[in-house]
Specification:
2 copies of one chain form a homodimer. The first copy, chain A, is of the alpha/beta class. Chain A contains 11 helices and 7 strands. At the A-B interface, helix 2, helix 4, helix 7, helix 8 and helix 9 of A face helix 2, helix 4, helix 7, helix 8 and helix 9 of B. The complex binds adenosine-5'-triphosphate (ATP) (2 copies) and magnesium ion (MG) (2 copies).
């Protein structure tokens, strides 16, 4: 029975896509059959995995609005055990189109439930907002993984995100839980990063991962080559940390 | 006659709020009467200028949805010549509420036109999306300032933003122009930053500012003290660059 995990944070540029692309590629290396769903109209996760726009025919938009069956949307990637439902710019209009639909919050859940058992993990990358697309992600997923940039504005936004998660749990998805909070773009030489990590660990002692992703230029270079970090520069600190994170993530699945 | 400038880019975390907060504070120091409008539900620009949530009564939401007259929304800041229409979390629901309204794209324009002549500059910070709030910003403004993070994903998103600007120009705001493209978070020691700047300068030779904002930790510390950079650390490279940028911006207004 596959697990569906949403990666969400309405604060922009905190490492949602970077975490999505690198988690799925490390999971596939660990022989877990994994699907990445790109629900962001910017389609960064799609290009981060090397998928070219001209080869993309369908996106999750087609399951939400046109009711095309989800298996039709899935594409292979260059990596074994790793599949993707890419994004296209059609998604830009999705939120307005969803607004007047019946059961508008459940459209993504209805689609992904049909393919849940084809994978060990389904990981969903979401846009930087709390609109209907992200609401759909939070309704569709079992747990939500929160990348937290170690900066002030990102910490400020955490309360709003947690309130939204609670609202979704109360109204649409009663078993929604937090998978974990991953500190990203940390610069441990600065007080700011240390303060943010200390503060969030104080509030959620058992939810913050021990692995911290530092700022590492190789992580921001990899997308321009369409490759996850472990295929772009395996010796980089970014690759090491995402491999460590994936190990910690998998241990938590076994309840360790 | 006040000029209305929107700061927009749907890519998250590229420096929209940091540019908005620091541009308005440098303009006010240059004795320009300036209003910052925070249209992002995250309300980062509001806290970046030291406004506490508990002191905020109204936001732009009240002009868009409840039709409260705009002068009622304006608050003073700690800095002379600098005023703000803050944001509140009410704005999270604004996009859905705007969807079914008549003239939904013009609501912000209608509100800001009423107060345009009270200021030399009205600067609008927008959320990381191309939804109805950002569309309202692009319809309300004379020109749009585009902060461009010097990274691959941010460059990738530029085309989608420019297409949206063109669509708005064709349908809602025929005189909408680009104020300029400001390179942000640049690390000129890396190839990536140099490549992004070279590429965008190649496409838009006369639109890219000569001033480049480098990555500078003091810029990310300042918001935790609720201060613009020139009041947090005047000696920092971040303060120097935003003062230079404001000078270049003002020269462009005089057609120099
Ligand atoms: N640990 C890191 N070190 C250095 N750069 C990073 C790191 N993580 C992400 N980046 C870069 O920072 C930028 C923002 O990251 P990313 O796009 O993954 O965030 P996001 O939350 O998905 O953004 P959005 O809100 O726009 O969806 C990207 O250019 C990315 O390459
Ligand atoms: N030049 C810079 N050097 C270092 N840090 C910066 C710089 N500019 C912005 N930052 C920091 O980077 C983060 C992202 O910047 P900011 O919040 O201004 O971007 P934004 O585009 O407004 O994000 P959003 O898309 O969420 O609205 C913030 O934590 C900010 O303090
Ligand atoms: Mg992203
Ligand atoms: Mg912002």
């Amino acid at each position: 029975m596959g697990k569906i995990i949403g990666i969400a944070n309405q604060k922009g540029g905190v490492g949602k896509t970077t975490t999505a692309v690198n988690l799925v590629s490390c999971l596939a290396r660990a022989k877990k059959k994994t699907l990445l769903v790109d629900t962001d109209p910017q389609s960064n996760a799609t290009s981060g995995l090397g998928i070219e726009k001209k080869n993309v025919r369908y996106s999750i938009y087609d399951a939400l609005i046109r009711r095309i069956i989800p298996t039709e949307l899935v594409m292979k990637t260059d990596y074994s055990d790793l599949f993707i439902i890419p994004s296209t710019s059609d998604l830009t209009g999705a939120e307005i189109e969803l607004t007047d639909m019946q059961d508008r919050e459940h459209k993504m859940k209805d689609a992904l439930e049909q393919i849940r058992n084809d994978y060990d993990y389904i990981i969903i990358d979401s846009p930087p907002s709390l609109g209907l697309l992200t609401v759909n992600v939070l309704v569709a997923c079992d747990t939500v993984l929160i990348p937290l940039q170690c900066e002030y504005y990102a910490l400020e936004g955490l309360t709003q995100l947690l309130n939204t998660i609670e609202r979704i749990r109360d109204n649409f998805n009663s078993s929604l839980a937090i998978e974990g909070i991953l500190p990203t773009m940390a610069d441990l030489r600065t007080n700011l990063s240390r303060q943010v990590i200390a503060e969030v660990t104080n509030y959620f002692p058992d939810k913050v991962y021990k692995t911290i992703i530092p700022r590492n230029v190789r992580l921001s270079e990899a997308p321009s080559f369409g490759k996850p970090i472990v295929y772009y520069d395996m010796r980089s600190i970014g690759a090491d940390r995402y491999l460590c994170f994936t190990e910690e993530f998998l241990k938590a699945q076994n309840g360790e």
